[in-house]
Design goal:
Blueprint: H1 16-29, H2 37-55, H3 64-86, H4 96-100, H5 109-136, H6 145-174, H7 181-187, H8 191-208, H9 213-233
Helix pairs in contact: 1-2, 1-3, 2-3, 2-5, 2-6, 3-5, 5-8, 5-9, 6-8, 8-9
Length: about 240
């Protein structure tokens, strides 16, 4: 996918701060193979991030400064994954399944991309919302915050839905119209519902953020639950195209 409204060097017009994030993502991506699971997710996520960089300057959002800040913090949580790997630190439990299976030859690229989206949306996004609200001194329930959060769904849809549908259509045609179990699995993963869950978890984490052990337990439970979903998304199924 190309960068929406991008300049010749691949840096999008729009947010300078998000442009710096894209440069950091590109630096990490250059170290991974084309089929690396983290790289497959990064390719999709880069397009979404580049589009957000444009949308925060074109009047899409009521509070573009908040969305820009949120997007930078959000991306930083993904960039923590390769940084933790490089430093030989333990990767967050939400990301561990994708890291462990990033080179598995039996997984379809869309499974890898969706596992990354699951970890990033269901785990990282609630943390990013709380961190952004704390930094800016506003609660998630402040006027306009949730509305702008919902508008990001439209940005995601511009990039992700056509990608997923084109992949599934191609596999169904190639398999003679038969949906394999993995195609059924990924077709039932809803990004809109994932973001709804992320918002609910952000509200929970916001309300327990000062409760010490309770806050830590809530974050750990969220990471473990998200990791479990990713393991399901990364199940290796026999491909109907491999049958005689």
């Amino acid at each position: 996918m190309g960068v929406p409204n991008g300049e010749p060097n691949g840096v999008p017009s729009g947010s300078v701060a998000i442009g710096r994030v894209l440069a950091a993502m590109d630096a990490e991506r250059a170290q991974w193979s084309r089929t690396d699971g983290l790289g497959v997710f990064s390719d999709v996520y880069r397009d979404v991030t580049a589009l957000v960089a444009v949308r925060v300057t074109d009047g899409t959002f009521t509070h573009p400064d908040f969305v820009e800040d949120l997007d930078v913090r959000f991306a930083g949580l993904f960039l923590d994954v390769p940084r933790d790997l490089a430093a030989r630190r333990t990767v967050n439990k939400a990301w561990a399944p994708l890291v462990e299976r990033r080179a598995h030859a039996g997984l379809w690229p869309l499974q890898l991309a969706l596992a990354g989206m699951n970890a990033h949306i269901n785990h990282d996004l609630p943390l990013a919302v709380v961190a952004t609200c704390e930094a800016r001194g506003v609660p998630p329930t402040a006027r306009g915050v949730h509305a702008d959060f919902e508008r990001v769904n439209d940005v995601l849809a511009e990039v992700v839905r056509p990608l997923r549908q084109s992949f599934l259509d191609a596999r169904v045609v190639a398999a003679g119209g038969e949906l394999s179990p993995v195609a059924d699995l990924v077709s039932n993963f809803s990004i809109d519902k994932a973001r709804d869950a992320a918002w609910a978890n952000a509200l929970v984490l916001w309300h327990v953020r000062d409760l010490g052990f309770v806050a830590a337990a809530a974050r750990d439970a969220l990471a473990r639950t998200v990791g479990l979903v990713s393991r399901q998304l990364l199940t290796v199924f026999p491909d109907p195209l491999d049958r005689p």
